[in-house]
Amino acid sequence: MSYQPPFSISARIINQISAIAEQLGRLSTLQGQPSPQLRKQNRIRTIQSTLAIEGNSLSLDQITAILEGKRVLGNTREIAEVQGAIRATVALPTLDPTSIHHFKEAHYLLTSDILTEAGKFRKSQVGIHKGEQIVHIAPSAKLVPNLMPDLFDWLKASPDHALIKSSVFHYELEFIHPFIDGNGRMGRLWQTLILGQWNSLFYLLPIESLIKDQQNRYYQVLEDADRAADITKFIEFMLDIIHDTLIQNSTDQVSDQVSDQVQQLLSIMDDQYRSVQELMARLKLSHKPTFRKNYLLPARLAGLVQMQYPDKPRSPKQRYKKS
Q: Domain ranges in the chain?
């Protein structure tokens, strides 16, 4: 492995990876996968957010209509961008994140309705503008055919964690800017692919939605990394985004599943602390693991119940009441 992107593994990154792994563990304890409705909502949020970052003005309702095959009135290019994003998102789990061929194929799916150069590396110089100011001049087009294989070779050989590799690849892609257009969308898409290959839950998470919410900070951290020639702060930023997305999705999934079991639990609770045994007796349940997994844990993750002794979560004297 000849090329090594410029970053270091900070104590903060280690702590962030630990927190993300913990949050993924909590998500995995929830009963089943998110409902089809929540998965559809997350896909729509992902598409709307990644396009909005690049200036697309179509609303969630309009994108929902396009996804459902309905006719939508709007800017032709913006509608084509949505259709391309849908194609790329659907194909994503079938792609190999270490394949340049698949990388170009994804760009073609994303932009073929709007670019004649879809799926092809650029042949001209490009820069990134903020208003009238140029904030980044990409490497010469003649360097791209060497820079991209070097980056993919690093991705394939690097022993670093997928959370780190995905963030580094995201930054490096924006730095190289291999395509004439669509680089931001590709950077975010490919980070999701790398993460999804590590844990398939990431295919369902709208990470782009939180990037959009912090769009100014996102661009600022990219600029700061350029100036410092160091990707570490961008990795930290992206890990914060991923962690916050997981927390939000936990809440969404629990809400989606506030389910009959959670509603039943809440219906027999009041403002008095009750033991697990009392609650199970009221629900006429006898299997404690089922009660904890399907009733108590989702209610706790949603913040709907609270513990009497939060500093001693495993205490045999633990009791619960409505929040």
A: 11-255, 259-322
